[in-house]
Amino acid sequence: QAIDRTKKDQEDREKKERENRGRLTQMKFDKELSEKERILAEKEAKLREKELKLQEQFRTSTASSDKQDEENNIAKDERKIRETERQKARQKELEEKEKKLRDIE
User: Fold this and answer.
1) Whole-model pTM above 0.85?
2) Closest CA to 95 of 57, 103, 7, 2
3) What is the DSSP secondary structure assignment for residue 1, as one 8-state letter?
């Protein structure tokens, strides 16, 4: 009976040791998992920040590009107007010269 009790006590101790090792292993695993989740959350936050910066840069560059396009269109329109005015002035000059030539004839 004493041998059985000693054997039983030994089995109980071994069982508790296994349970303790299992708990320690689980705690270690949980700690590592928590650390990995924290690192992942930090990386996700950095990625979101980069994404927001890129979106802002895109909006800024788009607005800048739109403004530049508008300025280019205005400049193009002004060149067309000046060219039209030059053509009208040249046409008028030619008409005056033709009239003078007819008057001379």
Assistant:
1) no
2) 103
3) -
44's tokens: 């996700």
DSSP class per residue in 54-103:
HHHHHHHHHHHHHHHHHHHHHHHHHHHHHHHHHHHHHHHHHHHHHHHHHH
Q: Tokens in use for 91?
A: 């046409």
For residue 85, give the amino acid letter: E
Q: Tokens representing 66?
A: 């739109």
Two tokens, residue 89 = 């002035």
Question: Which residues in the chain come in under a pLDDT of 70?
Answer: none
Token reading at 57:
């840069």
In which residue are the tokens 């008057």 written? 103
**What is the spatial distance between Cα 59 and Cα 52, in angstroms, rounded to a whole number?**
10
3-state class of 105 per DSSP? coil
Structure tokens at 18: 């296994």
Task: Report the distance separating Cα 90 and Cα 84, nearest Å.
Answer: 10
